[in-house]
Amino acid sequence: MSDNILKVSGLHAGYGAGDILKGMDLELPHGKIMTIIGPNGSGKSTLAKTLAGLLPARAGTIELDGRSLNELGPPKRVLAGISYVPQEYNVFRNLTVLENLKIAREFMGANGKAARVVDERLEELFPELPKHYRIAAGNLSGGQRQMLAFACALTVRPKLLILDEPSAGLSPILTREVFERVARVNRTGVSILMIEQNAIEALRISQSCIVLSGGRVRACAPAREVLGMKDLNSFYLGNASNHV
Amino acid sequence: MLQTTFNGIVTGVIMALPALAVTLLFGVLKFPNFAVGAMMTVAAYLAFALNAQLGWPLAAATVAAALAMGALCIGIDQVTFKPLRERGAITLMVASLGLGFILENVARFAYGNTARSFAIELARPFRVADVRMNYEQMITIAVSSAAMIAMYVLLTRLPMGRAMRAVADNPSLALVRGIESPKVIRWTWFIAGVLLALGGVLIGMDRALEPPMGSNYLISVFAAAILGGLGSPLGAFVGAIVIGVVSELSTLVIAPNYRIGVPLVAIAVILVFRPQGLFGQPYIRK
Amino acid sequence: MISFLVLIGIVICFSAILALALNFQWGLGGMVNFGLTGFYALGAYAAALLMLKAGANTFVATVGAMAVVAAVCGLVAFVTLRVTEEDYFAIVTLGVGEMLRLVALNEDWLTKGALGLTGVPRPFGAVIAPEYYQYFLLALALVLLLATLWFLNRLARSPFGRLVRAVREDDVVAATLGKNVLWVRVRIFAIGGGIIGLAGSLHSFYYQYIDPTQFSNIVIAYAFMAVIAGGRGAHRGAILGAASVMLLLEGSRFLKDVIPALDSDQLAAIRIIIIGAGLIALLIYRPQGFFREYRLRVDFK
Fold this sequence. Notes:
heterotrimer; B: 286 residues; mainly alpha; two-stranded antiparallel ribbon; 2 strands; 2% strand; globular; C: 301 residues; 13 helices
């Protein structure tokens, strides 16, 4: 048991020739929320996918609670305690809402069968879900799908939740709703790593902030500090040169 | 006309099983497997060996052949398709074509080209309201329906069935939701093997056993799966019945040997007007 | 022995032409033709029928056969490729090939069905003495093979060739650049079809007797093996691939003498099993083939 739930060192990853992540480091203490911001193409989604195991790390290490994840495939990382919500295509459209919720737990072995899939906590957090149980996820509205994706990620009782742009495509009201729920989930002890374009809203509930640009960490500061900056843009682009 | 429709329903019901196998395999493995016809053939001959040569009752022979075929399919996947998993649909299709040649000719090698039959009592037809049927056809309908119901239960109520649908829906999401895809793939092949074995035996009962018996149905089976929507089990069933009935009805207007033209034209028509079939999802190119 | 080699040489030539066609459609155009056998049969029957029923001479018959197959291929491509999913295209070509085979088998009035067509004339058959004819045919086949090769190479270097490569690389990009992707693909498939027709005509001239059994799965299995062994996209490779595959497998006909216990059906079955296994093994272990394309390096997916 170490201080940090997540520790990333010197991470390199990419899709074809060339790396998108060019050696990045990150430390997330237990129970905290970290927001990652940065321009498009900076590697934010690549980072999320690499942490989830969908992309292999070409160099560097990923440690969850002191345990190295590099050799594990995505399903084993779920067992280890990571849960990832992709930005798009984050629910099974042809399965019903209830099936979506069930499926995340069903393959968790002993952990999975014990408790109810959707326990009281989850019902409390997502009160609108039960009435949609029998509806195919593809027939939900965009906002409802995001909530469902979020709920699914929680059914596995993760230690670390990775959210890729949870507020993407949502109205301002829904956005606020999403962040409120993220904060509530965090209060139950789940550490959260959030990628967001909606920097201000996200930073309001976060403790720390990282700016990713050109595949590297350009800046790292407490969220409050970043929020207080008069010119967020210059911090964003500031010291970082945007050469890819 | 009623007779022809009934015959079409029987054909359709027989095709529903391999059509379902095709659609399951396509959903989970993401490529059309051209070896399914030959797989039916091999399974049918396995049942033949047990039934006509070793004297087992056909039911027992079928069960044994089905289980054997399921296991064989898993093995085939490990050796043939698994090494090619990352290479793209065309490579997998070509490999499946080669596999089909191998399987069909293994049957030919073992049993030659002469037609064989299962060791069962000759059917005595009976009539129901002007339509001639026989006992075997009743069994066929019963077996196929039972298999369909079992599949429905599997896919909707059992975790593995849900996992198969999830992997078909979104493979990478399935991974990050904790689903181990090798396990799902093995189960999919096993189930497909069982379905194909049942289909092969039913064809053998309906017609005869000869090496091309399965491949002859290949286009029709694919037409059924495409009509229903590749990836939709319900669609496979409905599609098969439709193709079966329409094919048979078409013999009233065109020469019987061209029955195969019907599924082909059906595929073309579907592709032009509604590529996702009746129940499929429009294909999203990511 | 020489005779045998000459005859094998002829067979290699038209098999190589067929392999070139597949190579063109698949390796360069990205369209797999699973109905190859059926189109090949179409070419052979078209040539034979034009000569036997319409009294055409061999040249006209060949051109006619090429046109027929090109047209059918073009039509199939046009109807199917409007939905550009390679899976569906494969299934349709499989179906069309099967359909063509059934037509050959069943349309007795046209093709004499299972009995087949006999007495197909040969080019200059009346003019050249029978003892020397096989040499002539070999020379002719070689000339046609080289002509096909030359044609395809010219095509590859032409603006159309660049267009073909651009479409294969990324059809979305090509489309946004205003190129009519569908039309390019139709033309590719049609040109390939014409070449298949040429191979089919040669088949007719060589055997002088055609029936549906000559057009079995072996044809397409050979062609695929040749193309993959040769390295998809490389013309020279396809030819060398065809030669190697043919030699290996025709040579295996001698097995019959070595293993008397097996009957001819079984031997035929073994040969196809070997080809099928060889095909899979090639795909797994040597997908790039044995004869590299040494032009611009291109990524095949």
